[in-house]
């Protein structure tokens, strides 16, 4: 380690050069029918020479493994974070995940209102253009006024409604509730007046006798 960085690099390169030459001689011996020293020869261990992952064939020996820039290559990559289970993933899912709180920040609603105004303006402009085009072709017809109080001739009065007819030329209406006549109203007022007078001047005994007589007569 005391030889210095450059000297250590030169020596490491020289060792790798000799190893390559050794490999060529082993391959030539095998071609000539000799023994396969690459297979039966002694194996080189990692503490003698170690290859950088992804750089097969070049080895670092001794102090060369601690050179700047080389040490980092031998550091193990951190393990990937463990994968979360389905139950752990479901814990972080709330109403916000489904978009129920999108309008609470006050950002989405103004954008929607602005977009709505734009769509309405485009629809109105399109209607105006179509109307002008129809007017230019002479196809525009006068809009008929719709009378919400109009009654069709074939409309029935099954619910007991009575038709109120005015003078000739006036609009006809249908009342969907029974409307009493003037005579019925007067009779109802007279009966009410009699009951008030009877309750005012008749005694309780007379009232009881009157009710008993009505009961016996079946009235």
TrEMBL record:
Residues 135-179 are annotated as: Disordered. Residues 159-173 have a biased composition (Basic and acidic residues). One of its GO terms (biological process) is generation of catalytic spliceosome for second transesterification step. It is found in: Nucleus. The keyword Nucleus applies. Keywords: Nucleus. Gene3D superfamilies: Helix hairpin bin. This is ISY1 factor. It comes from Crypturellus soui.
């Amino acid at each position: 380690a005391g030889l210095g960085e450059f000297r250590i690099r030169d020596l490491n390169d020289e060792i790798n050069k000799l190893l390559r030459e050794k490999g060529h001689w082993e391959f030539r011996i095998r071609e000539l029918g000799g023994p396969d020293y690459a297979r039966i020869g002694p194996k080189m261990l990692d503490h003698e020479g170690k290859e950088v992952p992804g750089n097969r064939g070049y080895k670092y020996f001794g102090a060369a493994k601690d050179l700047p820039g080389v040490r980092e290559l031998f550091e193990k990559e951190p393990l990937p974070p463990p994968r979360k289970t389905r139950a752990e993933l479901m814990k972080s899912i709330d109403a916000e995940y489904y978009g129920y709180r999108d309008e609470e920040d006050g950002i989405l609603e103004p954008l929607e209102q602005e977009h709505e105004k734009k769509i309405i303006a485009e629809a109105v402009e399109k209607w105006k253009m179509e109307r002008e085009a129809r007017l230019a072709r002479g196809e525009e017809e006068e809009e008929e006024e719709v009378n919400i109080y109009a009654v069709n001739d074939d409309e029935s009065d099954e619910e007991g409604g009575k038709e109120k007819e005015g003078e000739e030329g006036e609009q006809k209406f249908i009342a969907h509730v029974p409307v009493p006549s003037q005579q019925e109203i007067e009779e109802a007022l007279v009966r009410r007046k009699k009951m008030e007078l009877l309750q005012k001047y008749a005694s309780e005994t007379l009232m009881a006798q009157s009710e008993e007589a009505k009961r016996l007569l079946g009235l």
